[in-house]
Amino acid sequence: SSLLNKAREGSRTIISQPIARLAVPVITRKMNEAGESALGNVVADAQLAAVKDMGAQIAFMNNKGIRGNLETLTGNISTYGQNATVLPFGNTLVLMSLTGAQIRGLLEQQVWLDDESQDGRNVLQVSDGFTYIWDAKRKVGERVIPDSVKLNGIALDDQREYRIVANNFIAGGGDRVAMFLQGK
Asked: Distances in Å between the alpha carbon of 51 and those of 31, 41, 164?
């Protein structure tokens, strides 16, 4: 019992450790009509920042891996525990190369209905500078408008390799995005 109390106290110390001050009280994982969320953007941007010095250009995060809103305490202070609630799986980052054509292919694979997802969609959250247009009215496999897939405003070249980063779950083909398995 004293060992258990000691462990609880140690955990409480770590969980309550302040790690960031945010500009807002809550960053939400709620997706808009396009499938983007403010928190998904923050997570993807953070992943890109973590390995940008290793050549990463684009980050992808699965919305289902984000398990809660990022909340804060008084003064918009966010703790280790609050951050761990957002990303509870302890995933690692995987840096790989995919061609422009492969990236477009993985964008085609991402959207499907799923009871586990907060609104039934599995949508990749993307880092700043990466954009594309997806049209649900088009035939499955042709929903991403090819010329719309851009990095910093420049259309991706189907043959060129781009350095991308994703968590190890989706990099291993999780959430039915098998195109990641073709990464080098």
From this structure: 26, 16, 9
Q: Are 66 and 87 in contact (CB under 8 A)?
A: yes
Query: Residue 6 CA to chain centroid, in angstroms?
Result: 35
Give the other-Cβ count within 10 Å of 159's Cβ: 8
For 44-96, write each residue's pLDDT tens digit. Answer: 999 999 999 999 999 999 998 999 999 999 999 999 999 999 999 999 999 99
Q: Alpha-carbon distance 131 to 97, whole Å? A: 18
Maximal C-alpha separation, the chain: 63
Tokens of 100: 């422009």
Task: Name all contacts of 44-50 with Cβ < 8 Å and 24+ positions apart.
Answer: 44/125, 44/126, 44/127, 44/128, 45/127, 45/128, 47/93, 47/127, 47/165, 47/166, 47/167, 48/127, 48/128, 48/165, 50/93, 50/165
Cα gap 179→126, rounded to integer Å: 16
pTM metric for this prediction:
0.90
Amino acid, single-letter form, for residue 182: Q
